[in-house]
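The records we work with from here on pair a chain with its fold. A complete example follows; check for yourself that the lines match position by position.
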Amino acid sequence: MQGASLRHQPPAPGRKPVPRGASRMVAKEPMSVRLPKANFGFLKALFWPVLLVALGYGTYEGAQRLMPYADRPITNVNVQGDLTYISQQAVQQRIAPYVAASFFTVDLAGMRTELEQMPWIAHAEVRRVWPDQVVIRLEEQLPVARWGDEALLNNQGQAFTPRELANYEHLPQLFGPQRAQQQVMQQYQVLSQMLRPMGFSIARLELRERGSWFLTTGAGSAGPGIELLLGRDHLVEKMRRFIAIYEKTLKEQITNIARIDLRYANGLAVGWREPVAPTIAQPAVAKN
């Protein structure tokens, strides 16, 4: 029996040898892939805030260095507005402590408050104009009536107290509770507009504590002043009633009427003036 012999046969042409066991080769990854990548997100998030802070600080420092060259003293104060009751000189004297400051440090809010504390100034606007000017625009009070004996009322029903009240005695005189200034002014404007076509003006209008209204007309082309008792409510309706009856029956007798009571639901009551006794001339007595 012949011994068996092992022969190593070469691989067939065209076929690669198959690696066996641990002899199989594995491709190595590049070093850049195996190492962890650096994370720059935090630095990017921090970059913009730092840049903004740096820009702000640089702007502030630049402004501080340029301020002495740009900030100038106030050399021109321009006062605008139609001034009837106050003078330019009075305004200049009032704001003198404020304009002593420089262009950037002048207190515009304080200047406006100071001006509006003047009795005749209703509203003030103050602004800077480069490089050394302050422009002031003033709106004066418009006196429409006297409020009691110590103040005037403007067209908005707001009281103000100038010094020279004696110069405005020709204005109508309004009375009422302090809380009712605007209400009395509004009622005055309505009633005055209704009476004006008849030749009447309002010399006095009073709202009493209990809510009753009393009106006195001024002497004029329609005759001497008369007193109208209007009551508490429906003033416009009562005034219309008075106008209608006046045109029909009272117009010819207006010089003899002292007061008219309109507190009735559908009518009125007339109070007549007392007749003036004629003056009797005393006969002359001859003296020896």
